[in-house]
Amino acid sequence: MEMLTRGIAGVVRKSGFVARNFGVSAPAAQKVTDPIQQLFLQKIQEYKSKESGGKLVDATPEVEKDLKTELDRVSKQFGGGAGVDMTKFPEFKFPAATVDPINSAN
């Protein structure tokens, strides 16, 4: 098996079909030189610094009100209500079907 792997690797090297993913192997501490990537990273870091414990970032009272209204509407539509945890996976119950006995004595 090892010889087969070496043989395939040799053929691939000779054919010039060698590719490397520099994005995966690049060190994390390397400075980003692309201005678009740098801006993207800055915005992600800025957003992370504004993180507020699972709530919307930079939300106005109007947006919060609209969110609550929509969540209440969806909760009512899909069987939620007071005391119902809508984040919990539903429990399915499949009762055993009743089968009529077969009369074999005809």
From TrEMBL:
Organism: Phlebotomus papatasi
Presence of keyword Cytoplasm: no
Pfam families per the UniProt record, alphabetical: ATP-synt_F6
Family as reported in the entry's similarity comment: Belongs to the eukaryotic ATPase subunit F6 family.
Biological process, per Gene Ontology: proton motive force-driven ATP synthesis
SUPFAM superfamilies: Mitochondrial ATP synthase coupling factor 6 (SSF111357)
One annotated GO molecular function: proton transmembrane transporter activity
Physiological role: Mitochondrial membrane ATP synthase (F(1)F(0) ATP synthase or Complex V) produces ATP from ADP in the presence of a proton gradient across the membrane which is generated by electron transport complexes of the respiratory chain.
CC annotations in GO: mitochondrial inner membrane; proton-transporting ATP synthase complex
Keyword annotations of the record: CF(0), Hydrogen ion transport, Ion transport, Membrane, Mitochondrion, Mitochondrion inner membrane, Transport
Protein name: ATP synthase-coupling factor 6, mitochondrial
InterPro entries recorded: ATP_synth_f6_mt, ATP_synth_f6_sf_mt
Superkingdom of origin: Eukaryota
Location of the protein in the cell: Mitochondrion; Mitochondrion inner membrane
Broad class of the protein's primary localization: mitochondrion
